[in-house]
Amino acid sequence: MELIITKKELKKRLGRAGNIQSIGFVPTMGALHKGHLSLIEQAGKENEIVVVSIFVNPTQFNDKTDLEKYPRTLETDLQKLKGTPCDYVFYPDVDEMYPEPDTRKFDFGQLEKVLDGRYRPGHFNGVAQIVSKFFEIIKPDKAYFGLKDFQQFVIIKALVNQLNLNIEIVPCPIIREADGLAMSSRNTRLSPGQRANAAVIPKTLFEAKNLTSRYNVQQLEEWVIKTINKNPYLNVEYFKIVDDERLQPVNDWAEPVRKVGCIAIHCGGVRLIDNVIFN
Ligand code: AMP
Prior knowledge:
Layout: E1 2-4, H1 7-14, E2 23-28, H2 34-46, E3 49-54, H3 64-69, H4 74-82, E4 88-90, H5 94-97, H6 115-119, H7 123-138, E5 142-146, H8 150-162, E6 168-172, H9 192-197, H10 200-209, H11 217-229, E7 234-243, E8 259-267, E9 270-277
Parallel strand pairs: 1-4, 2-3, 2-5, 3-4, 5-6
Antiparallel strand pairs: 7-8, 8-9
Bound molecules: adenosine monophosphate (AMP).
């Protein structure tokens, strides 16, 4: 495994002249956990070469404090990557990725007007800026994204379509802690009390799956929000049940679409997201 910090060096290593059969790419912001590692394992099974990026992308943070407080743990990340199929760790600095300000404005239509797009203005534009840059440099055959960030996965698929890129976007299941909390780099910022109470989030989401015959869609959304907000550590920003392709609100359980319940919660100063599939 090699650590690479410049685009030029990475492009040189990945030059197609070397007869590389396929490149799998896993973008991350570091502070790696088993969720990230599962993406890397999957990439290793399906590709000859695996590239993992570690880059805390400033353009996708609409909240400056969140950017400043984002955990940065390169040394332990590299230790964790040693036991994985990762061949190249791409660890550029901000100037390397943004030698000039990126003024591109992407348009994802309705996809970016709901859920996190609504509450984190500019977030998905920043994600599209950095991911499109990585795609351009690495030219992967497949790129791996976790379903924890469900809206991100849908938007990246739209990005690839818009740019006519021949990259397969591979969805990977949510990896959870023993008590059900979705793994996240931000979990390390929770106090012990916050961390223990955050388990109420998945518990409520899983319970909700069993209540679809008792409540209609809107009632169930209200039940989830009320149940979680009863916990003094947790404050729901939104919980919406949407279809899994266009991310539009579902009004009736009978609608012939796959339904995903997406949630964002504030736990102290930490913002967490999760989701659950209803059918
Ligand atoms: P991040 O470092 O948080 O930007 O995440 C990098 C990638 O790992 C994204 O595709 C995330 O969706 C994915 N990821 C993060 N947490 C998890 C998890 N608990 N399970 C599966 N994938 C995850």
